[in-house]
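Structure ticket #2291
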Amino acid sequence: MSPLVLTAAGLCGLVLGVVPLSLAAVLRARALAEGARRQAREAREVQSSEIEALGRRLEALAARLDDVRTAAPFAVMPPERGGLNLSRRSQALRLHRRGEPAGRIAAELRIPVQEVQLLIKVHEIVMNAVP
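Resolution: structure written out below.
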């Protein structure tokens, strides 16, 4: 056989050996691409459902905000009095030392009589405890 025929036969054998490998590589690449497309589609579906759920929650929150805005405003309550402040306490005790009755002290300082009576009792207890 001539060297030309041997070379041609060798090339044909090489081509016949490479073609199935190339075909297998193309089929594998196509399968991988299809798998990637499927995963991307599934991820988009999951994201789409999550976006819809977030949209529903946002609408619900907007509705609640509208309800709060349209609800009657809270009645403004006057701040609670913290009892007697130091100046009123000292005024009440000064008036008590002068002999004023609890009712008159309460009227003058505009505080409840019970607070004045309690203040006087506590003051007397403290003064009796001091040696």
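Closing remark: The chain has two domains: 1-73, 86-129.
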